[in-house]
Amino acid sequence: MTDSDDEQGPEADVDTDDRPGAREDGDFFPEGTFNDWVGLRVEEYGEGEVVLAVDYEEFKRNPGDVMHGGVTATLIDVAGGVAIGSTFEDREDRPFMATTNLDINYLRPITDTAYATAKVVRVGSSAAIAQVDVESTAPDGERKQVAIGTVTYSVADQ
């Protein structure tokens, strides 16, 4: 993954042919799913490491006018899952995956687009772990770390 000086985040560097389940229109998540509805998008995709983003929008804010923690949790959970899923050859080889643990530390409020960089820590025979770092542009215009998370997925055959 590369760093970007663009305050709006990294440019999309995603080859749809390499992503299992990608839609023909280039979006990663199947239309009509929760991930599609909340507006998650893949900015970068590589084996064991991905960057996902979600925009700050009115329906995603809580009464304090900051992004709802559940949206951030979803971003972390899904980024970790996509990173783990990227380590399997293709969709047919990928085992059933389900979140078994999600640990999040919220560091700052989010009032702009959030970017989650997920890196696989380990993929074992029954579980996989990813670490996720979330950044966003703060009101002062500086991009800062806003949350960190660890995601554990079961990776058992169905």
Structure description:
The protein has 158 residues and is of the alpha+beta class. It has one domain (16-154): Hotdog Thioesterase (Thiol Ester Dehydrase, Chain A, Roll), CATH 3.10.129.10. Helix content is 14%, strand content 34%. It contains 2 helices and 6 strands; from the N terminus they run αββαββββ. Strands 1-2-4-5-6-3 form a 6-stranded antiparallel β-sheet. It is globular. The N and C termini lie far apart (32 Å). Residues 1-25 have low confidence and may be disordered.
Quick structural gist:
The protein is 14% helix and 34% strand. The protein contains two helices and six strands.
Helix and strand topology:
Layout: H1 34-38, E1 41-46, E2 49-54, H2 69-85, E3 98-106, E4 114-123, E5 127-137, E6 143-154
Query: Helical amount among residues, as a percent range?
Result: 10-25%
Overall spatial form = globular
Question: Runs with pLDDT <50, length 5+?
Answer: 1-25
What is the strand tally?
Answer: 6
N to C succession of SSEs:
HEEHEEEE
Number of helices: 2
CATH structural class: Alpha Beta
In CATH, the homologous superfamily goes by the name: Hotdog Thioesterase
Name its key features:
158 residues, alpha+beta, Thiol Ester Dehydrase, Chain A, six-stranded antiparallel sheet, 14% helix, disordered N terminus
